[in-house]
Amino acid sequence: MAVFTTVTEAELAAWLADYSLGQLLELQGIASGIENTNYFVTTGNGRFVLTLFEKLTAGKLPFYLNLMAHLARHGIPCPNPVANRHNQFLGTLKGKPACIVSRLSGKSIGEPNHAQCAAIGAMLGQMHIAGQSFSQIMPNPRGAAWRAATAPQVRPFLDAAQAALLDNEAALHGRQNPVSLPQGVIHADLFRDNVLLEENRIGGLIDFYFACNDALLYDVAITVNDWCMDADGRLDKQLTRTLLCAYHAVRPLLDCERDAWPLMLRMAALRFWLSRLYDMHLPRDGELVNAHDPRRFERILINHIANPQAVWL
Predict the structure, then answer these.
(1) Are 173 and 151 in contact (CB under 8 A)?
(2) Contact present, 81 and 69 (Cβ < 8 Å)
C-alpha cells in the first residue's frame, strides 16, 4: 500500500464526480506496502480508501471487490467497495484500475495479547463461514505452481544451507495435496498489519488482494505464524492455543486438520519466505522501499521443522 502513482486533488475530484460521495475534502497518500497505490480520502459523506492497482489486472479484480462486498453484507468488518453511478465497483484512474472503499476504524498492533488472539481467531472462523456462500472461485495464485516456479528464481541468492532448506521444503510440499481438507475462501495474508483493532475488538480486516480459494487450515496457519510467534520465531504455545480454540468454537476443526497442522505451518512459512526473498532480490521498481526481511520466515520455518509436534487445541 504505497504511492507509486501520484493522484492530484483535481484529478480525484473529477473522478469522484461519477460517485455519490459528496465534495472532496482531503487526499492523503499511504506510504506503507509494496503492492498498490493507496490514499486516504475524506469527502462530505465520510472517510474512504482509494486504491489504484499496480499489478492486478481489471479482469481479476471483480473477485476481490465482490468478495469484500459479500463479506461486508454478512457482518464481517472489511472494506466495503463503493459503486459508481453505473453500479460498478471498479473504475479507471490515471490509466490504472481503481476503486474506493469504506475506511474502517482501529489500528494495527505490534504484540497481540490473549484477548486479541482470541478475537482474530473467532473473526477468522466467522469469515470462513461467511465465505462458504460466495460463489466466485479464485485458485491460489501463490500455491503449489507458484512455489515450484519461484524457488529456482531465488535459489541463486542463498548460501548452501539456505539452498538445502529451500530444496527440501519445496520438494516436501510439492508432494502434499491439501485438497482433502475443508476448502473455501481464505484471506491468505491476515498478518497483524492487515487487522485493525480497537483495544480487544476487531475494527476491520483489510487488504484482501491475496484472497483465494484454498484449504481453510492454510489461512489459520498463515495467521498463527504471524500472531502467535515470539521474537525468535517460535510458537507461543498459549497464544496459539487461544487463537485455535477461539476459531474452533466458531468453525470446529476436524481430525484431518489436526493431522495436517504441523506441515501446514511449514507450508505457510515457506510461502512467505519465498515471497520475501523474491521481493528483496528481484523487485520491480520502487518495491525495495518497503520490502520485508525474509530472515524472519526462514527462522520460523526452521523452528517448525525442529519442533514437529505443533501446538493444537
Answers:
(1) no
(2) yes
Which amino acid appears at position 144 of this protein? Answer: A
Domains defined along the chain, listed by start: 9-102 (3.30.200.20), 114-306 (3.90.1200.10)
Q: What is the enclosing helix (H) or strand (E) of 126?
A: helix 114-131
Alpha-helical runs (H) found in 203-236: 216-227
Kindly give, in sequence order, each residue whose CB lies less than 8 Å from that of residue 246, ignoring residues fewer than 6 positions away. Answer: 117, 118, 119, 120, 121, 122, 125
Q: What does the block give as the cell for 115?
A: 484477548
Cα gap 92→101, rounded to integer Å? 14
Quote the CA–CA distance of 42 and 17 in Å, as a whole number.
14
Place of cell 479484480: 61
Is there a contact between 83 and 64 (Cβ–Cβ < 8 Å)?
Answer: no
pLDDT digit string (tens) for 225-281? 999 999 999 999 999 999 999 999 999 999 999 999 999 999 999 999 999 999 999
Q: CA–CA separation, 218 vs 177, rounded Å?
A: 12
E strands present in the chain: 24-29, 37-43, 46-52, 91-93, 96-102, 183-186, 195-198, 201-205, 212-215
Gyration radius of the chain's alpha carbons: 20
Q: Which H or E run includes 278?
A: helix 255-281
Q: Do the Cβ atoms of 168 and 302 come closer than 8 Å?
A: no
- Total length of the chain: 313
Take residue 63 and report the three cell numbers written for it: 473477485
- Write the pLDDT tens digit of every residue in 120-178: 999 999 999 999 999 999 999 999 999 999 999 999 999 999 999 999 999 999 998 89
What is the DSSP code (8-state) at residue 263?
H
**Cell numbers at residue 218, please?**
492454510
